[in-house]
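Residues and backbone
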Amino acid sequence: MDDLEQLFSNNKAWAERMTREDPEFFSRLTHQQSPQYLWVGCADSRVPANEIVGLLPGELFVHRNVANIVVHTDLNSISVIQFAVDVLKVRHVIVCGHYGCGGVLAALRDDRLGLVDNWLRHVQDVRDKHRDEIRALHSIDDRHDRLCELNVIEQVLNVSQTTVVRDAWARGQSVTVNGLIYGLEDGLLQDLGIHISGVDDIPDAWKNSRAFRSGEHDATSSWPDSTAVVDPY
């Protein structure tokens, strides 16, 4: 219980500090939340969503899981996206990965960690899809970094393909899906250059990404033909 007591002590100090700085802070929070952003990030404890973007409670709606994955059959993440888009009316969905992600590294190396291996199979699908590009990199660190980036880009595309986001666009709602990556070594976010605001943006989303434009990686690994993304038939 000593460890929990420390948390309670920290919480009390934080609440008192917030009240001193803004006496109406908690009373405002009890009435409603009106965030403009949904953050889909990694569960890694070194990536605290609100803190790294300097937003207070109530300003960022957050979903986190191992390796910031969005799978169409995962009702947890899809429900969060649906609530954020349909109820809270967020204007931005941010998929944020991070360099040094342990889940991505495990997927890259085929590590066996237990039940989570089944979840990380989704990252291995990304790895296998871009196998030639990843193999062309000379070090495990470069391959790891690149897979972290590729995983974010793939998850942005997955979010953009959900019925929730597609339906929002169809009714004229403004929602942009963005891909960012965070550096543990310097605490800075980087824009991967992928921003999707409608169905028409999807075919060129890969080409417009920061990683593609940089010319540092093999352009032959681009997303498949645009008709395969937009039209399932």
